């Protein structure tokens, strides 16, 4: 995993040259070796070029994660175009403004994509299957074709934030930052060529998209399981003999529940990597019990910097609640409200500078100026994450929550993240959303689980100060998740209005 590689497609070309017959990608419809993935990406790049797509243009993919979507990512890289993955379930009120801002030269769709609104946009559409068919023909007709120059500063991808409360912002991700993050993470986590990485997440989320790059950097195999039925996940993990499984807390809970019903232990899983929300100590212990050979690795990051910290393997129990140490070359600073550096143990805003920090938001100079700040060295950009946390004396980061997760109630400062972690530690709770107080209502929680409100309250009294226990509690059969596998708090608010006090 040499640092000399600076372009996204160079990671693939190296893997195809060194291990051409090594399995690279698997999805529900088939499997490709590295030479096949590289060949497909070259064919796709020629299709894009024949359609007039040039360096700096945007190619949108509104499909589930698949071999074809991965090949399109590398194809766009080859000609210097920016790959823009969007989730097929994105609502029209968010999708249409995003497309207008991106102004794509081409939108690639899949059978799961609703194209009714897309036809009205006037943008060129191409089906995923048609792209593959055209690529086969173009490869035969344009043997001498060569792409133009691409530089490490060109935009490799525009990855959109979740947009849970507003129109998603597109994070501009240059080649240099993406390849650094992918190679550094693969090395830090110890990805190996014999690993099989099982990824349930969409490519529209950086957690899913980067798995393609990380596996390619390590020449491992990636299994794309986006859209797989919940009940089939454990069976699929067993069938493909997965050794690494990226998770979020909701997926961890689901896998342990499914595993409890089976006598056969999936011993081949050696690592779970977590992001999105904090895993409770109880969840980590249950994963380690259910998957006896595994290590659970907490992490912290944002799309704006991909990954910021990673917990060294085997240290989660030594530093409970921590999300690890910064990546190589990454500077981490906790800041007070006046911008000064906080002391160890003092909560403040998490800010970060380093080779993993992206360059801003697509066509959004105001948000870029607020979030990506030049301070001191003109070559150094500090990302103001809007997240809060603290560092211990050893430099380990502890995450406290988003700015919106921190609030005062009865003159006591508290965090929705802390209360949610306590809820997830209560036996019988499968998922939870804590909603800070507003002018119309008090602090509230919406809980998915097999227990009654009094049981939830008793469980919280054993884990929290009384002042931090929400007086409003709604129990539901299922809390909806967003495309990233996180609890959808907008939906939780609706549950609260329908069933709350």
TrEMBL record:
Residues 12-362 form the AMP-dependent synthetase/ligase domain. It comes from the Bacteria. InterPro entries: AMP-bd_C_sf (IPR045851), AMP-binding_CS (IPR020845), AMP-dep_synth/lig_dom (IPR000873), ANL_N_sf (IPR042099), ATP-dep_AMP-bd_enzyme (IPR050237). This is Class I adenylate-forming enzyme family protein. It comes from Actinomadura meridiana.
